[in-house]
Design brief:
- By secondary structure, this protein is of the alpha+beta class.
- It is 31% helix and 24% strand.
- The chain has two domains: 262 residues, Aminohydrolase, N-terminal nucleophile (Ntn) domain (Glutamine Phosphoribosylpyrophosphate, subunit 1, domain 1, 4-Layer Sandwich); 174 residues, Rossmann fold, CATH 3.40.50.
- The structure holds iron/sulfur cluster (SF4).
- Iron/sulfur cluster binds next to helix 18.
Amino acid sequence: MATTAEREAEGTHRPGKATVCAAPDRLEEACGVFAVYAPGEEVARLTGYGLQALQHRGQESAGIATGDGERLRCFKDVGLVTQVFDDDAMEALPGHLAVGHVRYSTSGAAACREAAQPHLSAIDEVDIALVHNGTLLNTDGLRREWEARGAAFASGTDTEVACRLIAEATRATGSVRQGIRRAMTELRGAYAMVLATPEALYAFRDPHGIRPLCLGSLPGGGWAVSSETCGLDIVGATYLRDVEPGEVVRIGADGLTAEPGPAAPTRASCIFEYVYFARPDSVIDGQSVYQARRAMGAILSREAPVEADLVLGVPDSGTPAATGYAEASGIPYAFGIVKNHYVGRTFIQPTQALRERGITLKLNPLPSVIAGKRLVVIDDSIVRGTTSRQLVAMLYAAGAAEVHLRIVSPEVAWPCFYGIDTATREQLLAAGRTVEEMNRWIGSDSLAFISLEGLHEAVAGAAHRHWCEACFTGRYPLEP
Ligand code: SF4
């Protein structure tokens, strides 16, 4: 077995490749993290299952590092989890603990092996492996300081800088937990992280708790950490609770110990997780994502009613909201838009003409369902608006008599700086436009968005009421 450093250096099945991407017309997820502490279990395979459940959060690269009490081993590459890991790769990752990551880039190069996680660093004789969901706002300055002192970085990512910062702080304090604590006082931004040493796992979240992270217990007595509870479900773990903002949780031979940290004066968890990012079968802070989406649809039918024949959902995230809208309004729900799940973001579209065909590769209306019908079409959000415009044109071309767009998030008028890939403010359709101007540009018969109060009502089952909603309001919990 190669050492960590050797495995990092030797490459894997395929070399990293550059990718051409159009600016996104959705808010795109920015990574999923998963970890298990399970002596006697095949921890790499368990982590692979967890990462497959989180694949919707990132499709550019995947990686797993395992610890066996003495050393860490790591394997990562560009591609989906099932493309990166085969039986040989899994068997080369023994140990009693593992951390894993699926990536969607918001920092550093898009799809290349160097930017894939886990990132590794050495503290004297001890390796650490770090996985991160979020975006750090102040790591460029730290990187420049280190580079001026002669340090070299393998990737352009914020996570690699954080890994080095934690390693240096651990060396200075003589304790991983204290190293993490010290690094947390220096790092600004959104982070849900899991760090592995050869002996133990550490899970921690930024003081605002912007990105999600939860804990579960495994049937055999071990533990699991996941960005979402759907990752716990797939390995048979029982959801215990979410990691609190600012908290550091250690999982080792002596079990799970939690140390509360310096929570920010105001918690600010991402409310958009309920709208779009999270899987509908996940639970965040005690609130079911599926039930929240159903409620968003029902509330929107109250706030923006319309006379129509059918309710359609734009798959997949619009579907639960569409059923909620249908039930509350009494208008029948219909399956009228088919999604091709196999068109990835990294599909290379070399010309503008081909890029503009993007939506037709993904969505296809069913004329036999919608011809001659007045439609209410439920979608999760409007970013640049090009997708909505093309979808409305496709629905009319398929014979729709009327198309009324109903959106279960308020207008996205501000970019996200906390681990989500958005367009710039200038590219956001809602920036500086009225709803009627947006409606005219999209070409729908009517357009309406859920109110912020309505969205709060839909997630009222959560254990707190402190949300980041900066992409709707421009009020950022942390200065970008
Ligand atoms: S700005 Fe806040 S609410 Fe909007 S996507 Fe980013 S973290 Fe979520």
